[in-house]
Amino acid sequence: MQIADLFSGMSVDDIPAALAFYRDTLGLEVEEGPNGLLVRGNGHAHFLYPKPDHRPATYTALYLAVPDIDEAVDTLAAAGVTTEQYEGMHQDDKGIARGKAAGMGPDIAWFTDPAGNIIAVLTE
Fold this sequence. Notes:
Blueprint: E1 8-12, H1 15-25, E2 29-33, E3 36-41, E4 44-50, E5 60-66, H2 69-78, E6 97-98, H3 99-102, E7 107-112, E8 118-123
Parallel strand pairs: 1-4, 5-8
Antiparallel strand pairs: 2-3, 3-4, 6-7, 7-8
């Protein structure tokens, strides 16, 4: 078997809302196609497809690596995106879990897309 490409995907319940969010709010390159949206960033692709009985992912479905977590969270907040707070994750007031300082992984914050899927921004 020869693999030509690799990408991930998830369902959404509203393609126009997903298009606006991923393109306009997150600033990602989005290609519209007959079967959904292909979101691209730094050589990677994520497929968003419509599903009438969509149920949001209950896990982090997409990770966005950023050079500055505080800047990313501030930019998201200015665009009206609210970070999620999870019990036991030791997040600060911005919703950032400061893993680097605690020796427990990257600094990371979570939020949801319009379909309720969980997305994270984290330091590289």
